Every structure is written in C-alpha cells, then in structure tokens.
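Worked example 3 (structure in, sequence out).
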C-alpha cells in the first residue's frame, strides 16, 4: 500500500478537553500536507477548521454527543444543525450506549435518525458516522447497534470514541463489516498509532481510520512502498 492510499483512509483527529485553537490550526495544516480525507474536531472548533480547510480537498468532520452520547436525540439534532451551519461534511455521533445495553432499541434508532434527518436536509452532502463504543458492548450488542444505525440511515458505523476503556480491534471491525455489508462504511478508531495496525484494520474491513498519530502511521510508507 502506498502512502497516499493509506492517507486517503484517515480522519486526522484532535479531540478532548485540552484541544486548542492553535492545535486545530496545526491539525488542518498537517491534514492538507499529509493528504488525508478529513479532519475530525469538536463543535467549538468547527468554524475555525472550516476556514483553515478552504481551498483544500480535506473534508470537515465534527463530533456530536461526544464522547458519552448521553444527551437526548433533540440535543444531538441541534448539535448536528450547528455542525452543518459551520460547514461540516461529515458528522461522527455517539449513541446512548446505556439504552442499547438495556434493550431500548427504539431510543437508539431515534437518536441516530434525528441526526440523519438534519444531515439529509443540509444544502450539501453530509455523511453520518455512528459511534457504538464497542469496548462496552457484547458481540450481540455490537451487531444490534450496527443494525439499528443502518436502519436509521447512517452512512458508517464506527468502533470507538478513543475515550472508552479500549479502542478498535480487528475482530470488531470484521464483525461490523459482516453486519453492515459492502455498502455501508466502517470506521476504526481508538488506539491506531502505527502503519501495521492501520493496514490490519483496513484488511479486516475498515473503510476509514480515525487517528491522531497520522504522521507516525504514514511514516512507514512512501509512494513506492507495497505492503500487504
């Protein structure tokens, strides 16, 4: 796999309570230089990131209900509208994990659907990725969460926020890929810090990678490199 090909899978990410405007500006500059598909930031920094990405092919991804997912569907829809207004091309939202675990499937479906409705009526295409936080789920719950996300209109399912007890695993990526089939995306995120791990996730079925250590991931490859 060539460096540019691997870069095209990556959402270059800066999230968390210590994220600063300067950090977001560096993130965007790095994203353009590295040739990734998107940057992923919080709603507070969405407008700044949009400004810094003008004229580049890098997309803007904004997180919603992050990282716990424990707001209401109405609040997430409001956040999603704010993200769209800021120019988001993609939204990564977190489901209410507790609702999934207690079997309140309609609440999970409605949560995702509320965000998808906002995305669909935006004036430009907006992709919705649904974070399941797989480290807290049984395999059956992972399957059910992925099914509900697809039923509600999601474009992707995503393993993790990176703030749970564990991140992506190849086993979880493969499981989600089996559930959603070939037409829905799978994003692996959390703990992906090197070339070998990123490639393993892609081989397991990931169509996107979320990472903050993007330069490290790409450092093992160049345009003449061929990796399995």
């Amino acid at each position: 796999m060539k460096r540019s090909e691997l870069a095209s899978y990556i959402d270059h990410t800066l999230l968390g309570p210590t994220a600063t405007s300067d950090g977001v500006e560096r993130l965007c500059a790095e994203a353009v230089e590295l040739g990734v598909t998107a940057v992923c930031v919080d709603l507070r920094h969405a407008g700044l990131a949009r400004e810094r990405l003008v004229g580049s092919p890098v997309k803007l991804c904004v997180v919603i209900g992050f990282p716990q997912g424990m707001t209401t569907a109405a609040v997430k829809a409001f956040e999603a509208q704010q993200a769209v207004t800021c120019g988001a091309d993609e939204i990564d939202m977190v489901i209410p994990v507790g609702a999934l675990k207690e079997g309140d499937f309609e609440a999970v479906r409605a949560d995702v659907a509320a965000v998808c409705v906002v995305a669909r009526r935006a004036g430009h295409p907006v992709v919705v990725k649904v974070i399941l936080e797989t480290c807290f789920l049984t395999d059956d719950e992972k399957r059910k969460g992925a099914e509900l996300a697809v039923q509600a209109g999601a474009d992707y399912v995503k393993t993790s926020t990176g703030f749970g007890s564990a991140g992506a695993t190849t086993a979880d990526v493969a499981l989600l890929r089996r559930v959603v089939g070939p037409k829905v995306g799978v994003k692996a995120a959390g703990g992906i810090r090197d070339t070998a791990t990123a490639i393993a996730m892609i081989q397991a079925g990931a169509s996107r990678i979320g990472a903050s250590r993007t330069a490290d991931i790409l450092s093992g490859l160049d345009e003449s490199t061929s990796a399995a």
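Notes: The chain has a mean pLDDT of 96. DSSP finds ten helices and eight strands in the chain.
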